[in-house]
């Protein structure tokens, strides 16, 4: 009987831990965070490369121009992989109200 009670308590403890909000947040971070971090890092590195190329007067503009254009296009492609930010507001938007008329 004590072994059965210990197994039951262990299963209950594991289920309670797995269903906690903190554990759910960590599993979301593990599942989706890698893509976001890798993409953000790539955007950051390309931005730094663009800045260094633009700041160096020794490099010919004909050489660095296509590199900068392609890097900016890559940054735009990577930014397109992110989902747009979605905010839900409790109040309606100010543009949906009727205009105020002052006499």
Structure characterization notes:
With 103 residues, the chain is an all-alpha fold. It has one domain (2-82). The protein has 3 helices and no strands. The chain has helices spanning 2-18, 21-55, 61-80.
Show unreliable segments. Answer: 23-29
The geometry reads as flat
Average pLDDT, rounded to a whole number, is 76
| Relative helix content | 55-70%
Question: Which structural class matches the secondary elements?
Answer: mainly alpha
Main pleated-sheet profile:
none
Ends distance: 84 Å
> How many helix segments?
3
SSE order, as H and E? HHH
Percentage of β-strand residues: under 5%
Name the features:
about 100 residues; mainly alpha; about 70% helix
Helices, strands, pairings?
Layout: H1 2-18, H2 21-55, H3 61-80
Helix pairs in contact: 2-3
Summarize the structure in short.
This protein is an all-alpha fold and 103 residues long. The protein has helices at residues 2-18, 21-55, 61-80.
């Amino acid at each position: 009987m004590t072994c059965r009670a210990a197994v039951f308590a262990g299963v209950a403890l594991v289920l309670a831990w797995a269903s906690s909000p903190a554990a759910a947040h960590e599993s979301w971070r593990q599942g989706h965070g890698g893509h976001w971090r890798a993409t953000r890092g790539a955007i950051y590195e390309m931005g730094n490369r663009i800045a260094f190329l633009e700041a160096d007067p020794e490099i010919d503009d004909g050489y660095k121009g296509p590199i900068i254009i392609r890097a900016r296009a890559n940054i735009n492609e990577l930014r397109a992989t992110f989902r747009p930010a979605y905010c839900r507001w409790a109040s309606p938007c100010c543009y949906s109200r009727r205009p105020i008329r002052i006499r």
